[in-house]
Structure formats: C-alpha cells, structure tokens
Amino acid sequence: MSGIEGKVALVTGGTGGIGAAICIELAKAGAKVATNYRNQEKAEKWQAEVKEQGFGIKIYQADVSDYGACEKMVAKVTSDLGPVDILVNNAGITKDGMFKKMTKDKWDAVMNINLDSLFNVTKHVVEGMTERGWGRIVNISSINGQKGQLGQTNYSTSKAGMHGFTMSLAQEVARKGVTVNTVSPGYIATEMVMAVPEDIRNQIIAGIPVNRLGTPEEIAALVGFLCSENAGFTTGADFAMNGGQHMM
Ligand code: NDP
After folding, report:
1. In the predicted model, is pLDDT for residue 109 greater than 80?
2. 4: how many CB neighbours lie within 10 A of its CB?
3. What residue's CA is closest to ligand 1, atom 6?
4. Distance 131 CA to ligand 1 centre (A)
5. What is the CA(190)–ligand 1 centre distance, in A?
6. Could you give the CA distance from residue 45 to residue 7 in angstroms, rounded to a whole number?
7. Which domains does the chain have, with CATH numbers?
8. pLDDT digits (tens, 9 = 90+) for 164-207
9. 175 CA to middle of ligand 1, Å?
10. φ, ψ for residue 233, nearest 5 deg
C-alpha cells in the first residue's frame, strides 16, 4: 500500500524511457498521472500504447525550458485532474562535446532544459503542496552529476545543480509535509543510451560491477517508493542507482 491512491502526479518527459516507466509505476499505485510532451505525434502514439496496457495517462504540450508554458501546463493539469501532489522532474537532454568544442548553444540548451526546468515547473506546484500539507518532489539527476564525465561539462553541471536545488528546497518545505529528493541513475537501457555506439556501450558496461545496464523499471520502483506515504522521513537525499559503478 503506497498511500498515493487518487493523488495527482505530474511526470515531466513521461514519453521517454525512464519517464514512461515512472508514469506506469505511479499509475499502478493508483495515482492520476499526467505528463508533458514536445512532440505531439510521439506523445499521442505513446498515450495509445499505454492505454492498451490499461493506463489512462493525460498528456499536455509544454516545453519545460519555457516558464510560461509550464505555468499553463500546471493550470490545465489542475483543472482536469486536481492540484498536483507529486512532481517528478524527469525531462532532460544531452548535448555532449569536449569543453574545448562546447558551444554556447549546447551549454544553454542543456542548462535550460535540465536545470531551469526545475524552477519552471516546481514553482507552480510547491506552494499548493505546502498549503495542503503533503507533497512529493523527485528530481531525476545522473551518475554523471555525481562523478563528472568527460565530454559532459554542460550535462554534469546541470545534473549536479539539481541536487543543490533538492537540498535547499527540502529544507524550506520539510515542516509542511513535502519531501524533495534526487535520484541519480547510472546507465539505463533507454534510447538515450542505446544511441551510444555499441563498442562504447560495451566499454561502459564493462565498467559497471553488476555487468549490465539498468532498466527504467528499476529506477521507477525507487521513484515509486519516494512518492509513497512511507517515504515521509526521507528528504534532501540523493539516491544512487548505478549497478555499483560509482560508490559514494
Ligand atoms: P529520453 O530521451 O528517453 O526521454 C527524455 C524525455 O524528456 C522525453 O519524453 C522528451 O520529450 C522530454 N524532454 C526533453 N526535452 C524536453 C523539453 N524541453 N520540454 C519537455 N520535455 C522534454 O531520456 P531518458 O528516459 O533516458 O532520461 C530521462 C531522465 O533521466 C533525463 O533527465 C536523463 O538525463 C536522466 N538520466 C538518464 C540516464 C540513462 O541512462 N538513460 C542515466 C542518468 C540519468 P520529447 O521526446 O517530446 O522531446
């Protein structure tokens, strides 16, 4: 019993690999789940597929790097489903390149989508959570925010920054029944990782003690716990789930 039956959950980037598994995990626990999309065709196809599996997940068009669009998205979710009780900031991108060749465009795109999005979305839901005395916020960071990664100064900076946000906001809202946590996945078998050339992917796997990639469902199970009633004493933490690749 997770205690989130009937709660409203907003998962950003729900049409992607990890986000989809999180949407399904929360829907299985009885939450009313919404997600956003940029690509309408992809999102509608995904929505039809999950409906066939028995999950009715609402989709809303919004770019998480656009503050005004996020405000409108939250207003629509609230009018359709009710106020947001659970927020999973999951949408994210990579635009890799060695720092020497890192362009301002790549830097800004990753900062805006991975980091500014925390402000853009959370800003519109957190006050309602504190007023109602219950809320769960989970920010999906990355192992590379914890250990750094060559070719990812932009991505690692954005992902490390997410946990600073988690720790600070967690302190501000702890007395109001709202928890804020970070989940830092290692390499997970999603399109983002499967797009890495096979020889490089095999080198990555060789460096993971459990000798495999993680699955989106494993990440979703942890997020499901963090969103549950039982997780009320868990806040401001950064949970590594990386097959032992980086032990802190
Ligand atoms: P995917 O590329 O499969 O999915 C990313 C999702 O984010 C998509 O639904 C995409 O929607 C959405 N998205 C991207 N940019 C925006 C934007 N500007 N506004 C709104 N939505 C946007 O990625 P994963 O599922 O692999 O990753 C999910 C999260 O987990 C990311 O934050 C990633 O950094 C993190 N992570 C992933 C790891 C992995 O191994 N896969 C490892 C560690 C962390 P659309 O397609 O419509 O653009």
Report:
1. yes
2. 21
3. 13
4. 30
5. 9
6. 25
7. 8-241 (3.40.50.720)
8. 999 999 999 999 999 999 999 999 999 878 888 999 999 999 99
9. 31
10. -95, 5
36 CB less than 6 Å from ligand 1?
yes
Q: Is the Cβ atom of 39 under 6 angstroms away from ligand 1? A: yes
CB 230 within 8 A of CB 3: yes
Nearest ligand 1 atom to the CA of 65 is 18
DSSP E strand stretches across 67-197: 86-89, 135-140, 178-185
Residue-averaged pLDDT of the chain: 97
pTM given for the model: 0.98
Whether 155 is catalytic? yes
pLDDT tens-place string over residues 32-76: 999 999 999 999 999 999 999 999 999 999 999 999 999 999 999
DSSP character for 174?
G
